[in-house]
Amino acid sequence: MRYEIDGEVVTFYLDNPKRDNPDTRRVSFEGAGLTPAQVIPMLEATVDWRRGKSLDTQNTATSMLADFFAGFRAFGEPWPTHSQNWTLFVLHFFQWFFTNTESGSRTGTRAKTWSSIFVPWLGYLKDAEIIPLDVVIPCVHIKKLASLDGGVKHLLGQGRRCITDPAVSAQKLLVDVSFGMTDTDYLDTIEEQCRHLVGVIKKVCLQHWWGAMQDAETGRKLASQVSDDMIDRALAEERYGEMLKSSRGQFIKYASPSHPQGIAWALAWARHSLKRGNSRDCVSASTMRQSPLFNARPFTGARDNNYSILDGLTVLTTEQWGNFVGPARFYRFAGLLCGLDAAAACALLTIEHPQFSSESLQDAMLLNVRGKSRLLVTDHDERSILMIDKPRAGRLKSAALSELAQEIVQDIIRATAPVREVLKRSGDKRWRYLFLGALNDHRTSRVGILSVLNVRPSLLNGTSTVISLSRLYPLLTQNNLQSGTLDFRRLRNTLGVLKWFETGSILEMSRTLGNTRKVALKHYLPAALLHAWNTRIIRRFQNTLIVLAAHDEPYLLDVTDFSDLADLQHFIAQLILDYPANTSPLADEVHRRLRGASPSATPASAPSLLNVRLSPKSLAYLYAFHDLALKTLSTVQQDKVDTLSGLSPRQFIDMAKLLMHAAENTELHPALRDSLDVTQLIENHDRALALKGEIDMQFSKLTLKRKWEAT
After folding, report:
1. Are 317 and 357 part of one and the same domain?
2. Is residue 68 part of a domain?
3. What is the mean pLDDT of residues 109-130?
4. Cβ proximity of 510 and 520 under 8 Å
């Protein structure tokens, strides 16, 4: 970030990592009564404050300066020179910023801007001794009101809705709240729809990605018919075509669509140019027109200028293929990725690893600025770890790629390798990015220019004027996945909610999304769903108390929330299962009042999970107990279940075997690897074995009864 002053106009040059030239922003202080000598120290401090930051952050700083100069124009005051003058000016500017009628921003937005931008900036100016240190900078705090919307991101298939009134019946919320349903049935009503929509997106994106890879492979086979030597020889001898019998004596260029091998020559030329090109436009449409091997106007409306043979070679249907124009068809078979391909890959990687946000995936790099790889190969080349920057979180996120994600990343690296080499040879700074390909922007005549791909949400949900996945694959629109209901953020948010459905844990949801529990609860779990779920829990407990109090009264059905006797009986049956005998005072009352003298057997206890904390000490105790139990306990004693805890030594023995096997075996199923957190397990396993010897000595001093007595 740097600036230049021309008269009373400041021109800022902002660093854009995806462009050759920096972005420019102009801010004028004309009419503010300021001189360049007064402004320059403040500009220098601002540039130092925001140097090295992201493009959006630098752009925000320029907007902040524009407001600051507008404040001087509104007051008509000169540049403050003393502490008292600065204090008055800051207070006047604070008042003007919140009352300025020229801005349409809401009070909440202005308060957030003041607290997050102006207060730190004015504080930095104090540190730079531009503003006196004793000047008090006013702060503003707005009470955050709880609401059902609360800035929560929406799920797939949901457009923007009006906030639901909590006073309205619970059936008016996102889901149908039935107090008589089991927890599993209730969650399934939402989870099933979410999983279905995610499955539809995954199916469509896989179909598109594999289709693109298959067409690229077809193009490679066609290009292999013409070698690089044949192209070099034709160019050296200036022999750019030949006379064919079918052409009635006309001269046909080798890469012409009219030539029998025209498409093979064209694709081979693209391969040849990528191998030896030193500029981003080495395979562009304009370069193609200048090549003597092609017709003067390739990919124009005339049939003789389009490779119609590709119509029968693509895996796309006729309707889908009709959405692609000539250059896009050619570059697809040339193996160059487009924005649509990158959008499908981003969606698939998000489904496999929701901790990667759409912004971080779009800006993912294979190498950082120091040349260190962001893709680490482990486990004997079977699995890879991908590390991606999350700028807003200010940290590097990593994940052990799933089998599908690794296959997609490898396809991306293979497809972008030629483009990466061209950009590297040309000295272009974008060669480190993951998603590289050929642009297809007819508005700016950048057709076939090699660059980093811009993955926009419109490529998923687009309109009639944009080639998008929803336009190519009607399955998306049939499931209401279109503009307003489908984007990368909704997809990622839905995956986080699905994790909450599976585990009921905000912690697991936050781990899946790579966020803190506070962020997951506030921004990713839909407040209306959480409100409905809490309402259901409360009403279900209230109905439980009502049933216990009036279980033998004739008006029981009238005082509960059920409309017929069948639902009431189902609810009572669920109470007996949900409250096992001898587990709580309420459970005792349920069985005493509702079960009566029924001799039916006690239902089996619900299955539960045995967890262990992954730390060297806990693993050491578990391993030591495993050895001790095998040595001192018989098979019957190992299977003996303790009535208080419901646990037996066998469960600890099996868990120790599982963890030792997972830590010492390199071949594990991906599902087991993810559930066990193998990376952390391996780190603690060796340390646990070192501690185990000391614990074994402690256990050897203990005495166990050889005979267990029933209690």
Report:
1. no
2. yes
3. 88
4. yes
Going from the C-alpha of 317 to that of each of 301, 320, 327, 329, 687, the distances in angstroms are 21, 5, 18, 13, 58
Lookup: tokens for 698? 């402690």
> In this predicted model, what pLDDT tens digit does every residue of 451-487 receive, in sequence order?
888 888 888 887 667 788 888 999 988 888 887 778 8
pTM passes above 0.85: no
- DSSP characters for 124-179? HHHHTTSS-TTPPPP----PPPP-SSTTPPPPTT----PPPPTTS-GGGSSS---T
Please give the Cα distance from 143 to 79 (Å, whole number).
Answer: 34
Based on the fold, state whether residues 385 and 449 are members of the same structural domain: yes
* Residues 300 and 371 placed together within one structural domain of the fold: no
| Tokens describing residue 282 | 């080495």
Flag whether 506 is in a domain. no
Residues 214 and 279 reside in one and the same domain:
yes
Query: Which of 614, 620, 611, 625 lies closest to 687 in space, CA to CA?
Result: 620
323 in helix, strand or coil? Answer: coil
Instruction: Report how far residue 670's alpha carbon sits from residue 271's, in angstroms, rounded to the nearest whole number.
Output: 37
How many helices and strands in the chain, by DSSP H and E?
Answer: 29, 10
Q: Are 344 and 205 in contact (CB under 8 A)?
A: yes
Q: Which residue range forms the structural domain that includes residue 624?
A: 616-700
Residue range 404-411: mean pLDDT, rounded: 91
Q: What are phi and psi of 385, to 5 degrees?
A: -115, 125
- The single-letter code of the amino acid at 433 is Y
Of 615, 401, 395, 610, nearest to 516 (Cα)?
A: 395
Distance between start and end Cα atoms, the chain: 77
CB count, 10 Å around CB of 601?
6
3-state secondary structure string, 497-561? Answer: HHHHHHHCCHHHHHHHHCCCHHHHHHHHCCHHHHHHHHHHHHHHHHHHHHHHHCCCCCCHHHHCC
Helix (H, G, I), strand (E, B) or coil at 353: coil
Helical H segments across 591-634, by residue range: 616-632
Q: How many CA atoms lie within 13 A of 39 on its CB side?
A: 23
Banded model confidence at residue 172, pLDDT cuts 50, 70, 90: very low
Per-residue three-class SS string for 231-295 = HHHHHHCCCCEEECHHHCCCEEECCCCCCCCHHHHHHHHHHHHHHHCCCCCCCCHHHHHHCCCCC
User: Alpha-carbon Rg of the chain, whole angstroms?
Assistant: 34
Question: Which region holds residue 77: left if phi is over 0, alpha if psi is between -120 and 50, else beta?
Answer: beta
For residues 82 and 72, give the distance between their C-alpha atoms in angstroms, rounded to a whole number.
Answer: 16
Does the structure show a pLDDT above 90 at 51?
Answer: no
At 396 the three-state DSSP class reads strand
Region 99-116 average pLDDT: 86
Nearest-angstrom CA–CA distance, 458 and 664 = 47
What is the C-alpha to C-alpha distance for residues 241 and 575, in angstroms, rounded to an integer? 85
CA distances from 350 to 362, 497, 513 (A): 11, 14, 10
Q: 10 Å Cβ neighbour count for 141? A: 7
Label residue 456 left, alpha or beta by phi (over 0 means left) and psi (-120 to 50 means alpha).
Answer: beta
Residue carrying structure tokens 């594990």: 668
579 in a structural domain: no
Q: How far apart are CA 496 and CA 506, in angstroms?
A: 9
How do residues 602-633 score in pLDDT, each as one tens digit?
444 445 567 777 888 888 888 888 888 888 88
